[in-house]
Amino acid sequence: MRNPTGRQLRFGAELRKLRERAGLSATEAGQLLGIKQAQVSNMEAGRVGMSAERVRAITCHYKCADKALIDALANMTSQRHRGWWEEYRELLPPALLDLAELEHHAVRLRASVTVHIPGLLQTIDHARELFRQVIPELSPPDIEHRVSFRIKRQAVLFRDAPTRYEVIVHEAALRMQFGGPAVAKAQLHHMLDMSERDHITVRVLPFAAGSFPGSGQSVFYSNGPVPQLDSVHLDQSHGPVFLDAEAQLHMYRTLLDRMEANALPATKSRNLIHHIAQDL
Q1: pTM
Q2: Residue 112 is part of which domain span?
Q3: Is 235 helix (H, G, I), strand (E, B) or coil?
Q4: What is the pLDDT of residues 87-137, one digit of tens each?
């Protein structure tokens, strides 16, 4: 059996939360649903597909009255199709594919970065330079696989109903000349062009803002169709880390809100980016 994707794991985890809130053990839930305890465990591990009708029946047995959450979980069962990212299944770490799937289904994306340009706003040359610096060193074909994957992820910003994207970029990231002045200048102009789109907001946290929460990490927040299905993605040297506990989601929402409060407005941010690009 194929290992479940991150989205399938999340679906199962939400079923488990509902069961536990109902005060039922896996054995008791199985008896209530007329299935074996092992089947309950498989459902909660994301290993079993099910219909929307089945999901609604289960949530009814669990006494869940949150219609928005029930509808969102039911919709997840009809979205188990193979996305474009599956063509990279044998080429890239599974966590990267989970990230693309998460972005594809998000209704809103937020990000804060301090020394890197957000992946969804990177140019090909900028991304290629970053992957050339990976340790252990990647082979040329592996670099190109990662570059093409990163660029394809950006499709969420160009589709008919593009995802709302809100980014906070520290001034330090804008002044990093990855790939040299020409590549850096082209990257800044690309950010300026993207920031003119109605669904994209780029705000700069200037050096003058001083200290701020979350300065030591990049944070990516994905809004699901309901708050319970939000996710946080942290970029780590060993790969993406995904968080979805309620306390963690609240903490990172607060962190992003405070960073936004310290950042320049969108127009002043564009002016600063343009000024930095002119100096290159």
Answers
A1: 0.93
A2: 89-278
A3: strand
A4: 999 999 999 999 999 999 999 999 999 999 999 999 999 999 999 999 999
Strands, sheet with 164-170, edge to edge from the N-terminal-most edge strand: 200-205, 164-170, 108-113, 219-223, 231-236, 239-243
Q: What would the pLDDT profile of 27-76 be if each residue is shown by its tens digit?
A: 999 999 999 999 999 999 988 888 899 999 999 999 999 999 999 999 99
- Residue whose token pair is 């996710």: 231
Dist CA 92 CA 77 (whole Å): 25
Can you tell me the distance from the alpha carbon of 105 to that of 225, in angstroms, rounded to the nearest whole number?
A: 9
Task: Show the tokens assigned to 97.
Answer: 């594919």
Asked if the structure places residue 82 within a domain, the reply is no
Residues 15 and 109 in one domain: no
- What are 166's two structure tokens? 């809100």
C-beta neighbour count of 193 within 10 angstroms:
11
The string of pLDDT tens digits covering residues 119-131 is 999 999 999 999 9
Q: What is the distance between the alpha carbons of residues 20 and 147, in angstroms, rounded to a whole number?
A: 42
- Separation CA 23–CA 40 (nearest Å): 15
Residue 84 in domain: no
Query: What residues does 223 pair with on adjacent strands?
Result: 108
The single residue listed with the structure tokens 């009814």 is 60
Spatial separation of the C-alpha atoms in residues 273 and 261, rounded to whole Å: 19
